[in-house]
Amino acid sequence: MPSIARPLRSVLYIPGSKPRALDKARGLPADAIIFDLEDAVIPEEKAAARATLAEALQTDGYGARMKIIRINGLDTEWGADDAKAAAKMGADAILLPKVNTPADLEALAEIVGDIPLWAMMETPGGMLNAAAIAGHRSLQGMVMGTNDLAKDLQTRFRADRLPLITGLGLCVLAGKAHGIALIDGVYNAFKDDDGLKVECDQGRDMGFDGKTLIHPAQLAVANAAFSPSDDEIDLARRQIAAFEECEATGQGVAVVDGKIVENLHVATARETLAKHEAIEALSAEHAP
């Protein structure tokens, strides 16, 4: 399974209808931006939002940030026109809401051609079909729509997200099996940094690459949580060094901090350092 080399720690939703927000996003330390034509745009502004977003992306200035356009569903009156317009905007991917089966992605692919697709995973049906959806030839990422999923499941809010764990886990398994990006759902209380950190840590430990965010104030917490820590970087370097020394001398078994270091540990260590280097490069570009 290929690892995700491009940092996607923070994926910020930006309304496609708001020129001021679109401009501000150019200076924010987000790894990726979801330019939203769906939930963030009221029906009366849907058509105008396409033109506003097209102008912003033509001006560009978003640097190495991944640019993803979330369109309205193809079962709505705006979806097909969104897809046709988005296909011409030069984005890195198009995000389809409420994907239930691979056929939903196929319908979008027929409109936009070879442009990479991402899927919003936010329905019980989508969760049950996660493996088939992840295997679609055009799919490169899954985004968890935890608010919609919780609504459909009729759950109560819990800090541990226990009612959602089965669905999230199915998507993680499917995404890892097919080597695609996995982005956790939003945390609604954008002023609660402590709660956000707990949820980011949970998502990171589950295997997600990053988290979708609803406010720029959440960027720092997400970026820190989904970055390798100083201790993890130090351990990775020591594991690689110890393993390579044993290989060079042909003597003994590599041991670091009282634990045996095997091939699989070295592979993880190399991925940790590669991710750290990619984040450093992206941070340098974002620096004023």
Structure description:
The chain is α/β, with parallel strands linked by helices and 288 residues long. The protein has 12 helices and 10 strands. An 8-stranded parallel barrel has the order 1-2-3-4-5-6-7-8, surrounded by 4 helices. α11 packs across α12 (263-286). The longest helix has 24 residues, at 263-286. The two termini are 36 Å apart.
Task: Describe the SSE topology.
Blueprint: E1 10-15, H1 19-24, E2 32-36, H2 46-59, E3 66-70, H3 79-86, E4 93-96, H4 102-112, E5 117-121, H5 124-128, H6 130-134, E6 139-144, H7 146-153, H8 162-178, E7 181-184, H9 193-206, E8 210-213, H10 219-225, H11 230-249, E9 255-256, E10 259-260, H12 263-286
Parallel strand pairs: 1-2, 1-8, 2-3, 3-4, 4-5, 5-6, 6-7, 7-8
Antiparallel strand pairs: 9-10
Helix pairs in contact: 11-12
